[in-house]
Amino acid sequence: MIAQNPKIGAYDLAIDAMGGDHAPVSVLDGLEIAAERHPNAHFLLVGDEATLQPLLAKRPRAAKACTIRHAREAIPGDMKPTAALRVRQSSMRIAIDAVAGQEAAGVVSAGNTGALMALGKIVVKSLPEIDRPALAAIGPSARGDVVLLDLGANIVCDARNLVEFAVMGDAFARAVLGLPNPSIGLMNVGSEELKGDERVRLASEMLKASPLAANFHGFVEGHDITAGTVDVIVMDGFTGNVALKTGEGALKLFGGLLKQSFTSSWLSKLGYLLARPALERLREWMDPRRYNGAVLIGLNGLVVKSHGGTDALGFAHAVDVAMDMVTNRVNDRIREGLAAMPSRNRATASLTTD
Amino acid sequence: MIAQNPKIGAYDLAIDAMGGDHAPVSVLDGLEIAAERHPNAHFLLVGDEATLQPLLAKRPRAAKACTIRHAREAIPGDMKPTAALRVRQSSMRIAIDAVAGQEAAGVVSAGNTGALMALGKIVVKSLPEIDRPALAAIGPSARGDVVLLDLGANIVCDARNLVEFAVMGDAFARAVLGLPNPSIGLMNVGSEELKGDERVRLASEMLKASPLAANFHGFVEGHDITAGTVDVIVMDGFTGNVALKTGEGALKLFGGLLKQSFTSSWLSKLGYLLARPALERLREWMDPRRYNGAVLIGLNGLVVKSHGGTDALGFAHAVDVAMDMVTNRVNDRIREGLAAMPSRNRATASLTTD
C-alpha cells in the first residue's frame, strides 16, 4: 500500500460500493480491473455486506484488494445534499468518514454528486490554505489531455479563488498527466490583456507575480480547450460547468449525425464497414470512460466522483485518477505551491496602488 | 424595398464593403447572391468608390440592388475600438451613420468585431427601453436551430439584463426562425430551482411573473444547446462567449479526428468515398456559413456582424439574417415585448418581500 501521508492508515482508497446506476456490480467489476492495475493497492469497500460478500467472492483480484465495511443504507440519486448529510449510516458517508479519520487517502463514489460534494466539503474539510475546493477533471484536446477546473463546485468565484485553482490545477496535471511543467491558461472572452471582467484581470496579474508565472500562458478562450493550447484551464465553476456540458453536447450531436449519415444508405453502410477499424480508434479516443473521474480537489483527502452511469472500465479509470493523485501526493504539492505564492494581501495591494 | 419603419429612408441595409479578410470581393459576391434572394432589397454599399465600381459592374444583380457611397478609409482588423471610434471616414462608420440617420434599417459588416460593437452602441444607440444590447446568433441543435444570447457584448450581467435578453431572443426567434411561440431557457449549472447564483434565480422568477411565462422552460444546461431542448437560450456574455467557442472547438476537434480516421488507411479512404454523399450532407449541415451573422440586438437599428473569414455564401447568410429581422420588424416586437413586461421595480419588490 502506498500511503500519501505517514499518518494515513490501512487503505489507499475508500470505495462507495452502493453509488451509481449499476452499483454494486459495476463498482466491483471496476475494482477487479483496478486491482490488476494497482497490485499493491488496498481498498476499503463500503456497502451492504450481505450483498457484497458473494459478489466479491466471484472476483478474486478485487477480493484480495478489498476489505468490506458494512453500511446498511445508500444515498438515493435524487436525495438533496442537505438530506444526505443527515444519513449517518450510508455507504457514501462511511466511506467519507474513513477519509476524514485518515484511514484512507481518498474516496471514489459513483453516487449522488451533490451529496458527495457536500459531504466532502463538510466532513473531509478544506486544506487550511485553501479558501474553496474545486471540481477538476480531464478532457480531450488535439494535443493531449487537458485539466479543467472549476467544473461547478463554486458558482461565484473571486480572483483569489481562481489563483488557488491554478495552483491546484498545476498539482493535478503534474500528478495525473505526469507533466513536469504544465502550462496554465485563464479562461476569458478574448486573449488580449484588457478583455474580461475585473476578476479575471486581477487573477491574471496575481499569477504573473507568482512562482507559476513561467508556466502561465495568460488568457485563453473556449476553443482553446480542445485546441490543447495549454495543459490546465482555470475558470469559475459556472463557466466551467456550462463549457464542459456544451462541449460534451456538441460531440454528442456530431456523433449522432455521423451515425445517421452512415446508416442513411446501403453504400454508406458499406463505407462504414470499410472505415470501421479507423473509426473504432476515433470512438475509443473520444470514449467518455477515458475521462471519467472528477476530483473535488483542495480537501484534506481526495474525493473522486465517477459518472453515475459508467461501467466497470469507467469506474476503473476513476480509481486510476485517484491512485495517481495518492501516489504522487498531490495534496503535498498543493501545499508547497500555495506556500510559495506571494501573500495575497501584498499581491492585491501592489495592484491597487499601481 | 421593405422599410422597417415608415421614417426609414431609401435603404434596407447599409453594407460595409471594406470589412473582412476577403473584402471587398467576398462582400460583393455575397451581395450578388443576396440580391437574388431578396429581389426588392436596396443596399447602400459603403467603401472606396474607385475599387467598388468595376467590381460591381461585373455583378449585375448586386449592381442593380446597390448604391455606392464613397468612404476613403477602412478600419483595420486589429484596430482598438477606442481608436476606431475616431476614424470618421471609414466604410464601417459611414455605414453605421446611415443607420443612425435612419437612411437604412440595419448594417452588415465582416470587419473588426470590437469596433463594430462599439460603434453600434455609441452611434446607433440602444432602444430607450433596453439597458444593454446583446450579441445574438443561431446555432445548430439536434432539433433545429437555436438562438443564443448574449455571446459576449456584456461580460457582467444582472437579472434585469437577462430578462431583457429573453425578450430580445424571443423576438429574434420569431423573426429569423419564424417560430410562433419560441420556448426560452435560462442557462444554469443544473435544472433544479435552487441551482445557480442569485442573479439567475432572480431572472427566472421575473420571467415566471412575465408575459413570457408560458414559453419559459426554466433553467437549462450546457448540453441543452445542441440537444435543442429550447428555441432560445439566455445567458450572460462571458458564459455565452465561452460556451459558443467551446462548442465550436469540440466540433472542430471531432471533424479533424474524423478526417484523420478516413485518411489513415487505404480501406478507410475507400470507405469514405462510398459514404461520401451522406457525409457531405453532414458537412453541409454543420457548415459554419449556415450560422454566419451575429446580431447586436437592442439598438435603434440592426447591426449584424459577419465572420471576418467567411466567403460569399457566408456573407449572403448574414444578409439573410439582417433582412429577416428588417422584414419582420424585430425592433417593434422587442418594444412590444418590453412594454408588456411588469415594471421591474414591482417584480423585484414582490420577490424581496416574499
TrEMBL record, chains A, B:
Instruction: Give the metabolic or biological pathway.
Output: Lipid metabolism; phospholipid metabolism
Which Pfam families does its entry note?
FA_synthesis
EC supergroup of this enzyme:
transferase
What is its subcellular localisation?
A: Cytoplasm
Q: State the Gene Ontology terms under molecular function.
A: acyltransferase activity
Chief localization class?
cytoplasm
> Could you tell me which Gene3D superfamilies the record lists for this protein?
Isopropylmalate Dehydrogenase
Record HAMAP family: PlsX
Record PANTHER family: FATTY ACID/PHOSPHOLIPID SYNTHESIS PROTEIN PLSX, PHOSPHATE ACYLTRANSFERASE
> Its family?
Belongs to the PlsX family.
Q: What is its quaternary makeup?
A: Homodimer. Probably interacts with PlsY.
The name this protein goes by in its record: Phosphate acyltransferase
What is the source species? Answer: Teichococcus aerophilus
